[in-house]
Amino acid sequence: MMSSSSQPSKKSVRNTGVSESSSSQGARNSGGPTVKFARRTSSGKYVTLSREDIDMSGDMSGDYMNYTVHIPPTPDNQPMDSSVAMKAEEQYVSNSLFTGGFNSVTRAHLMDKVIDSEVSHPQMAGAKGSACSMPACDGKVMKDERGNDVIPCECRFKICRDCFLDAQKESGLCPGCKEPYRVGEYDDDADYSNRALPLPAPDGSKRDANNMSVMKRNQNGEFDHNRWLFETKGTYGVGNAYWPQEDHMYGGDGDGGMQGGMIDPSDKPWKPLSRIIPIPTAILSPYRLLIFVRLIVLGFFLHWRIAHPNQDALWLWFMSIICETWFAFSWILDQIPKFSPINRSTDLEVLHEKFDAPTPSNPTGRSDLPGVDFFVSTADPDKEPPLVTANTILSILAVDYPVEKLSCYVSDDGGALLTFEAMAEAASFADLWVPFCRKHQIEPRNPESYFNLKVDPTKNKSRSDFVKDRRRVKREYDEFKVRINGLPDSIRRRSDAFNAREEMKMMKHMKESGADPSEPIKVLKATWMADGTHWPGTWASPSREHAKGDHAGILQVMLKPPSPDPLLGSADDKIIDFAEVDIRLPMFVYVSREKRPGYDHNKKAGAMNALVRASAILSNGPFILNLDCDHYIYNCKAVREGMCFMMDRGGENICYIQFPQRFEGIDPSDRYANHNTVFFDGNMRALDGLQGPVYVGTGCMFRRFALYGFNPPLVDQVNPKKGEGESEMQALSASEFDRDLDVNLLPKRFGNSTMLAESIPIAEFQGRPLADHPAVKYGRPPGALRVPRDPLDATTVAEAVSVISCWYEDKTEWGDRVGWIYGSVTEDVVTGYRMHNRGWRSVYCVTKRDSFRGSAPINLTDRLHQVLRWATGSVEIFFSKNNAILASRRLNFLQRLAYLNVGIYPFTSVFLIVYCFLPALSLFSGFFIVQTLSIAFLIYLLTITICLVLLAILEVKWSGVELEQWWRNEQFWLISGTSAHFAAVVQGLLKVIAGIEINFTLTSKSAAEDDEDIYADLYIVKWSSLMIPPIVIAMVNIIAIVVAFSRTIFSVYPDWSKFIGGAFFSFWVLAHLYPFAKGLMGRRGKTPTIVYVWAGLVAITISLLWIAISPPKGGAKGYKTEFQFP
């Protein structure tokens, strides 16, 4: 009794340990390096000493003060786990489904079963574990990073988290041995940020079977350190004397870097992380000259056209002048911003040396890179197949970036259980897929794309077990696809079974209560989760609070945050030998924001803002990379490539890194210009030489601080009171970011979450580049981001649930100044424009290997509707306060022209449609746009055409676009300009004038597995009203050519010059419409009947209209040939 009372309670011990760790972490955050002292005893052990012990001992050398002593892990010196209470809390959070929202309490539903299939990875929710030994308890024992049971007592009594906390509160005694728990004894040694590398055997192998010294003790029964160090060639001291060989992942030739020893980065010459590669002068100078020449010739041409009207057909001349003037203006807006194109390159080896290479102060090589939060958005599992989204998630989890710095968030705006369980299955399969990718350097890391590659998979693979491993992973992936594709049926059968059980219970209750058996049984047709509880999101049979627009907010940590140090696998854990492979997985979170009737949820932009807030609470990565659910990571080093720009000198002024969009599954001829290479390789490279490329919605790495609506940091203006010699390497408060922002007004801008407000200066500080060069005046000290992040607790996750509620944005600036901007269907362009308008700049990152790849609609109808959505957003931008005409002075002039063109280009469709009819009107009337085909007109026309061709050739040279792709882009420009762009102008005007809203459907993501014809969608003809204008234009021009040719042949004095002029321009129109006509033919020329109907109607209408306007002049003698409408 006395001994037990003299022991401190477990709760007090645990709290003491937490306070000590937090205080030590605060010391680390303050910037001062921690120094551990040690003394060797007579037995060879090293014992730690406090500063007071060192001050009292007089025989300690002064040199001891300058070193950090790292003790290599040996059989009697193994790293201790963190506190059991902390592990218990973290496991409780990862195994709980958190729900909440407006006027509801946030609840944590503990799930011991997330999916029907078995879960093995210890980081994942619902991981299998041993049963609790307490009577009448069916809980699971806590797990460590490797999935082993966490036993808090030496008696090995297994206990779950809840029972452990109860025992801790009640008596502090272990229920098994009745002895006090000894928790927190080793909490002071739980920080291994500066721990040395493990010493391998001399031959580089993990274990030497012939080396028996590790199993023997000296005469005192203690481990013989001297013998062990002699055999491993290791010594104690600063770091380890034994260092692994140079990592060739980022170098490769072994000429530089660390070879057998540590090199401090400060001793190396400073190197930039990125470089600007200018376009060769031999290409750029003629390109600029031709722009000026064509601009001058256009001016003279328009002046000549105005000065020489066609008196015979003024109406034809006037329409052509108006159209040509607008085309000249539109060409200026499109061409002038291309005046200064550039290319860029990155140096991944330098990035590795600065942030990941081991140094004397960082012997383990813990990464100093900032955190990155990935956002993946999906809304409807019927149109966006879960298998596509799952493959995207797997490619993110396997990306080549420090695991502890990565977090992945998937936004399910439909709140579907199908998506939830598909993401859980993906997290479970990642346990095998991610280590396999790391072991064999797999590219791409999307399993569907990887296993469908048509190349030799063994190319550049050196390990002998690759073929065996690949075969096993392929088999597991096939089973994974079967489970994903079978989820809808599985959920339906499970829900039917549980609903039938509820009906039986209700019937039994009615019989026992004596109710009328003829009354119908009223049981809600609920959707049930794998653990036998109601799904809090959308049900298959919608009901109140369980519909697409009416459900609670849901948050599930699928994969809890990993440990800060590598966790190597073993040969016995999985079906594949993962020895010497890091088996950790990044944090993965499922989020479905709350939706309620009566609230404007702002579509995708609102979902992205909910992810911004939730991620700020949970991980607070200073950088955010958003992807569509069908865009996956094709280059595993893409994040590092983008980070080279953010972490380079001047990177603090970059708001986002835009990667080009690349697509798969497009027909070889690219009939409808789906690759859009002229825009991504031409326009975007050109904008990169100005203030930066526009944001295109996916494949973009944002600076979180810029998304919060702040201006770029200007050191002289942020704190002008600082002297020149003072460092800027410190976090700033919100009022220093924005002088107009009062700290008391933070809730008005960001909402009432205190955690969110506190995360802002942290994200800003962690997103700064390294202050490793005198020119970097706004950086952070090296090593500031090596501190492990705190584990998640229930309070933090509950706060994340509250910030995704439907009411949180009320009376705040979310969507107006902060986050993704609301009010437009093209929220991406507006969001990027707002950042540029505040003075930020962006960078275009084109990598040698495509960074991301996705799918695009190859069907004509889907493609036109996609372009319609973009064009409608541009019209909305033009009529809003986001028009570039109203931009601030911080926006570059040429950048202003580019944004102005974004809002104006749809209006070109009005003039384009008129101009496409002019050749037909010319042929019908017998007049041309000019009086006669004079020499001056032909010279002007020839000069403009030659300049256009030469500009295209030079643009192909500096952008890398092929001529065929350039021609496809020109063809689809006319197709979309006469269909989708014109419809967008009409719909935009209706919205502005009459307030009529336009709803857009999602573009279907292809998940077909038809190996016989992967381009089957190309030949599907789905009728749309957007097809009417191009059909009318084509038919009118064809009829006009036939009529004019017949009239010219049978004329007494044929005027071939007028016919050739009109026919040439008609053929120009028809050549551009050729892909459209081919698309209408369908497979093997099977043209839909409605096309023939429209063609006939157009032909008859034009014939009657022309006869009414210009009736025949003569006829046979004695006959009257006038025609009148009845």
UniProtKB/TrEMBL annotation:
GO terms for biological process: cell wall organization; cellulose biosynthetic process. UDP-alpha-D-glucose binds at residues 377, 383-384, 413, 603. Residues 1-10 have a biased composition (Low complexity). It is a multi-pass membrane protein. Residues 1-39 are annotated as: Disordered. GO terms for cellular component: Golgi membrane. The chain crosses the membrane at residues 289-307, 313-333, 898-921, 927-954, 1031-1053, 1059-1077, 1089-1109. Keywords: Cell wall biogenesis/degradation, Glycosyltransferase, Golgi apparatus, Membrane, Transferase, Transmembrane, Transmembrane helix. SUPFAM superfamilies: Nucleotide-diphospho-sugar transferases, RING/U-box. It is found in: Golgi apparatus membrane. InterPro entries: Cellulose_synth (IPR005150), Nucleotide-diphossugar_trans (IPR029044), Znf_RING/FYVE/PHD (IPR013083). The keyword Glycosyltransferase applies. Its main location: Golgi. The active site is at 413, 828. Residues 14-32 have a biased composition (Polar residues). Mn(2+) binds at residues 604, 628. Gene3D superfamilies: Spore Coat Polysaccharide Biosynthesis Protein SpsA, Chain A, Zinc/RING finger domain, C3HC4 (zinc finger). One of its GO terms (molecular function) is cellulose synthase (UDP-forming) activity. Pfam families: Cellulose_synt (PF03552), zf-RING_4 (PF14570). Thought to be a Golgi-localized beta-glycan synthase that polymerize the backbones of noncellulosic polysaccharides (hemicelluloses) of plant cell wall. Belongs to the glycosyltransferase 2 family. Plant cellulose synthase-like D subfamily. This is Cellulose synthase-like protein. The lineage of its organism: Eukaryota, Viridiplantae, Streptophyta, Embryophyta, Tracheophyta.
